[in-house]
């Protein structure tokens, strides 16, 4: 189980997550914006058959996607450039 599964059955959460991944973060956010409701209300537009994910599951999935590092290689490249700059400055002033 992942952190956003909560008290949901694993097979449902996996199916919901796959539907959300296909819908995308922006699409999921638009669905929530267009259809207001409570945290336990089902979100029908994510998967084609019941059980449908509750709104709180979709909200947590969006939060998780927003905090996830989009491209880990970008972080590695930035880290390498920072190290190179520090080394170059050390040699320049040493």
What would you say this structure looks like, in words?
Helix content is 63%, strand content 0%. By secondary structure, it is mainly alpha-helical.
- List the uncertain runs: none
N-to-C SSE string, H for helix and E for strand = HHHH
**Biggest β-sheet strands, sense, barrel:** none
Helix content: 55-70%
For the terminal residues, how far apart are their CA atoms?
Answer: 52 Å
DSSP helical segment count:
4
Task: Report the portion of residues in β strands.
Answer: under 5%
**Which outline best applies?**
elongated
Structural class: mainly alpha
How many DSSP-defined strands? 0
Q: What is the alpha-carbon Rg in Å?
A: 20 Å
Arithmetic mean pLDDT: 89
Descriptors for this entry?
94 residues; 63% helix; elongated
Task: Give a quick summary of the entry.
With 94 residues, the protein is mostly helical. The chain has helices at residues 10-23, 25-34, 55-67, 72-93. Helix 2 runs antiparallel to helix 3.
